[in-house]
Amino acid sequence: MGERRLVRDRCRAREFEAFTAGAAGRLLHAAALLTGEPADRPAPAAEELLVRALARTYAGWDRLRGEDPYERARRELAGLFAQSARRHRRPRGGLLDRLSPRERLVLVLRLHEDVAEEQTAAQLGLPAERVHALYRHALAELRSHRPEPAGPRP
Amino acid sequence: MRGGDDFAGPQGAAPDPGWRPPPDRKETEARRMLWAGPWPPVPPDLAVRAAARGRRLRLRRRLLHRAGSLLALLALLALALWAAVEQPWHPPPARTTPAVEGY
């Protein structure tokens, strides 16, 4: 009994390590976009968020039942961020600084993670129209403050 | 703007891997902005930290589950014991003597 559990533990740890090695880069990028941290240096808030999301993914690893672990990790990340969104309101110098946490979440899920609008709405517990409006606003806001333009705005 | 009726979007929760969103210049541009530039470096101990925390979380969940099960079992046992002693399905003993008639 104990022997079998030990084997199972080791197997799970190995699977989780392989999964993390492949997925952590992209998930951390998404997390840094969410927390509004600049992408060119270590992002401690995003790391903390990701570690918590990955820990929850690990804890439910045996009960994934065919679900893609990446999807699970992304769902945990989005859920944890939505819970602690108030903590990430303050601008930190990232790309999505001007957006509200909720707009960031919708934009990252839709554009960075290619999650369909209906799924995004279901995940956030919002009506699809609201998600659509948030997304459109976030898009407009992001494009109106492109970092590229050199000259002063008219 | 959503896609036209002839454009079948993803229906329900099951995502269709072959489905591409309608080409939208704004979306493409925004997507490029999101993906452009450097990515934050992944700390080498991230997986280890997450696994250690996950193990603790698992342990806590299991403990909580066991405590809950034990509590439920105890409650069931208490109910069974009470029912066996009290036998509430029997009518309570009569407290009043029936009226004496035809004496």
What key phrases describe this protein's structure?
heterodimer; A: 154 residues; mainly alpha; Butyryl-CoA Dehydrogenase, subunit A, domain 3; 66% helix; 0% strand; disordered C terminus; B: 103 residues; 2 helices; 50% helix; elongated
Cα end-to-end separation of chain A: 73 Å
Content-based structural category of chain A: mainly alpha
**CATH architectural label of chain A:** Up-down Bundle
Helical residue percent band of chain A = 55-70%
Estimate the helix proportion of chain B, in percent: 40-55%
Order of helices and strands of chain B: HH
Biggest interface, residues from each chain:
A-B, 43 and 32 residues
Find the count of extended strands of chain A (DSSP E, 2+ residues): 0
Mean pLDDT of chain A: 89
Give the low-confidence spans of chain B: 1-13
Output the CATH class name of chain A: Mainly Alpha
Radius of gyration of chain A: 18 Å
CATH fold call of chain A: Butyryl-CoA Dehydrogenase, subunit A, domain 3
Number of strands of chain B: 0
Number of helices of chain B: 2
Rg on CA atoms of chain B, Å = 34 Å
What does this protein structure show overall?
The complex is a heterodimer of chains A (154) and B (103). With 154 residues, chain A is an all-alpha fold. Chain A has helices spanning 2-35, 44-59, 69-83, 101-112, 117-124, 128-144. Chain A has one domain (2-144): PhyR, sigma-like (SL) domain (Butyryl-CoA Dehydrogenase, subunit A, domain 3, Up-down Bundle), CATH 1.20.140. In chain A, helix 2 (44-59) packs across helix 3 and helix 4 packs across helix 6 (128-144). Chain A is globular and about 60 Å long. Chain B has 103 residues and is mainly alpha-helical. Chain B has a domain at 46-86. Chain B has helices spanning 25-35, 46-86. Chain B is elongated, with a radius of gyration of 34 Å. Chains A and B meet through helix 1, helix 2, helix 4, helix 5 and helix 6 of A and helix 1 and helix 2 of B.
